[in-house]
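Morning, I've got a small favour to ask if you have a moment. I've dropped the whole record in just underneath, so have a look.
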Amino acid sequence: MGIVAGLDSSPEFTRIVVCDMDTGAVLRQGYAPHPVEGRPSDVDPQAWLLSLGEAAGGGLLEGVQAIGVSAQQNALVPLDAQGNTVRPALAGGDKRAQVAAADLVDALGGREAWAQAVGCVPSAAQPVTKLRWLAKTEPENARRTAVLLQAHDWLVWQLLGRPVRRTTDRGGASGTGYWSAGTGAYRPDLVELALGHQAMLPEVIGPSDAAGTTPEGLLISAGTGETMAAAFGLGIGLGDAVVSLGASGSVMAVHPEALADQSGMITSLADATGMHLPVVTTLNAVRTLRGTAELLGLADLESLSELAMKSTPGAHGLVLLPYLEGERTPNLPHTAGTLAGLRRESMKPEHLARAAFEGMLCGLGDALDVLRGRGVDVRRIFLLGPAAELPAVQASAPSLFGAQVVVPQPADYAAIGAARQAAWALGVSQGTLDPRTPPAWQGAAAQVLEPGDELAVGQAVRQQFTAVREQTHPGAFRS
């Protein structure tokens, strides 16, 4: 029996879980917020270390033999030739590089060229786009940049005492925009295209490899991004998908191969186990519900859900296309939302509330269909986010998605996934685990919802949504 730890350094906080190596049982936990200084898009990486130290206080890591690191994805840490930060880290959610993203798409010859090169089309969040922004906006900082790390790479490097060797994992590398999940190789030419010159990139190590060992003998595993760590912590595998309900939404699924998608709707990521994790994003999820609640004068989403449950499936013919901020899936960046089916009998608050929930879920159902259309097997769907607990979501999701829906109990799944990775690396180093097979930890405790007799009703609602979408935006998914 051993003890391992996983830490998740998100944009706002650090969470640490200490787990039994064999079972995954959480033994103790730590938490600390990140110090808030300056603009949220520019972050001193030292703040991550300060938060980590505070979260690990009080002997939390006593007896721990290995640590796994999960951190916010796409946060770029540019270093000079001596290993010092050139400027504050560019946070994962930084949106200043939107113009740079379009610039890069054109520079390589369009969306299809990028999809074929690295499995994704540049977006404002990705490190490759941040490099372009840096070259255009801060040319002196760009010139000094010699090494490129992401948040979890930098934290692993710091924990190991800043060794000459710098590492990353497949999951983190796959989101950079200059590493291909399909070929398993970097595209240094894309770094040069964005930054204006070459830079040193971290070595990509395998899912069960160790990044190194501290002088005290503590093993540090490869680390990975939050998305990959959360998927690993949940224990999803082939046939599983995860639908995440944030302000925007995302759908990801485990798949045995990388998917290149010229439309740009699929981002082809690698997971933390050696498989692949294609992701489809919608711009409008919970923001649709919040907007509807405000329109109806409701204080919170719980009240909106309660009101929606007074209606019936199909919302008496009301259909809401929830493209309130434009949309990415389908690619309609400049469109607006649409409310169709208004009749005297449907003009009631409860029907609008129901239409908001159904519109949000149908939009995510479209994202699921993008993956299914590319051969991704989806038999079970994990539903994440606080909105997943709402009765109106749980009543509609199984029939609208056409699959079993699992609502896991709230937990620090990214930190748990990081701990599971640490257990894997430790077991391999001790000769007790196969490097190809992760430790068989118990899956997340969850509520399981079946479509049951409502499946036909849900599919009729989906058909009505599709008919309105095709009438309003004909051929949107064929463009």
